[in-house]
Amino acid sequence: MIEKYFPTYQDAWRRAQQSGKSHQAGYILLTVLVMAMLLSSLGMIGAQVLINNSRFNLYQAQSAEALNVAEAGINYYLWHLAYNNTDYQDGGHTPITAPYGPYVHNYYDIAGTLLGTYTLTITPPTNGSTIATIRSVGQVTNFPGTRTVLAQIGQPSFANYALLSNAELWFGNTETSNGPVFSNVGVHFDGTNNGTVSSASSTYTPSAEYGGSGSVEPGVWGLGGPKSDWQYPVPSINFTKVTANLSTLQSQAASGGTQLAATSALGYYLLLNSNGTINYYKVTNETGSGITTTLISSNNPAPANGVLFVNGNVWIQGSNWPGRLTVVSAILPQNSSTNTNINIIGNLTTANTNGSDTIGLIAQNSVQVSNYAPTTITIDAALMAVVGNVWALYPSPIRSTMNFYGSIAVSGIWTWNWVDSNNNFVAGYETTNTSFDSNMVYSPPPDYPTTGSYSILNWREELTGP
């Protein structure tokens, strides 16, 4: 007889318990596997992030180093121009036309390790400006990219000052200076200065005609101000460089400008026309009322490079001149007995006073306003007297008003009017309105003599990729 087994309620409950333990153990194992995979993935992601961060930091460091190398290229060429301020071809002769380059230089650290290279392209100043542009591309070892810097560099000229003097100066209590004033000797300043007033001397003994009493005074002194803009001593400015520069200007006129030969007449009269041409005359006589002239030619084109060199004395005037022109009056080689003058006999103005048009007058001896010039006169120009004066001639009739806009560089005396020992006005222009043309600082008349080394005016990074 076969017996059948019928499970009880307790048996069913016991089996269910045993089955649940088996499923629970499998669930735990699956959870552990998933967690392990998740942690492994997170670890791999974290490691990749660290690697990427390391690579990015290295990239950033190399990119910054490339920028440093590019800047080193700019600094190198500033140094190069300090020793040869007209060499824009990196010491060579190619290419023939601007922009010049590319010129590749290795760049080493202080230990002599090669870090990379900078590649230079140089665009020289144009149209008589002193502003050049340098493009420097920096690249470092094992870095796929480059960094590029564009810099404009400028060289200050003698037109950098409202008044630059190789002698002592005195501004009276009714006089105002507009723009920088500089003297290689010293400045007695009783007026109002709108700009710096500086001297190359820490102290000096002013002469009696400049208000001195025999006492030693500071390089800049007096009752004027604001004194916060007075500076002394500062580096001196070498006027002898200008004498040497006269031959360079003569060469510039001969090669790309205009040169008027020496003449047995008194010199040349130049009439600047508003259409940009020049009339040339020979001056055969001068009296207290004017000059006698003979026409050579009229409506001559302006010099291609802006430099007109006259081997003799010059008389000049003109209104609304639409161009950039430097007129040089000199007889070379230098001899004090033959030094020449430039005589302003009428208005001398430019069509625009925003820097696009400019006139420069460089006299071997003096730049002078003749005693038959108009009673009211306007001059827009940079004036330079290499060894002489910039002045209204004495004796002369008492005249009304001088309106001057430009820059003055003078070796000797500067004055537009004359007073006697009792401070009574006796000659020249009773009222003078003088303003500094700041456009001439780095955009002076063509090939105007310079006073110092190049410096960076502005720079920016040129993007070479998106």
Description:
This protein has 466 residues and is α/β, with parallel strands linked by helices. It has 2 domains: 67-156 and 453-462, Pantoate--beta-alanine Ligase, Chain: A,domain 2; 160-439, no CATH class. Helix content is 20%, strand content 40%. It has helices spanning 9-83, 240-256; strands spanning 100-108, 114-123, 131-140, 147-154, 163-165, 169-171, 176-178, 181-183, 187-189, 192-194, 197-199, 203-204, 217-218, 220-221, 230-231, 258-260, 267-272, 277-287, 290-301, 307-310, 313-321, 324-329, 342-350, 358-363, 367-369, 376-385, 390-392, 398-410, 414-415, 417-419, 425-436, 455-462. Strands 5, 8, 11, 15, 16, 20, 22, 24, 26, 28, 30 and 31 form a 12-stranded mixed beta sheet that branches. Strands 19-18-17-21-23-25-27-29 form an 8-stranded mixed beta sheet, with no helix packed on it. It has a 5-stranded antiparallel beta sheet with strand order 1-2-3-4-32. Strand 1 (100-108) and strand 2 form a beta hairpin. The longest helix is centred in the first third of the chain and has 75 residues, at 9-83. It is elongated, with a radius of gyration of 38 Å. The relative contact order is 0.12. The mean pLDDT is 88.
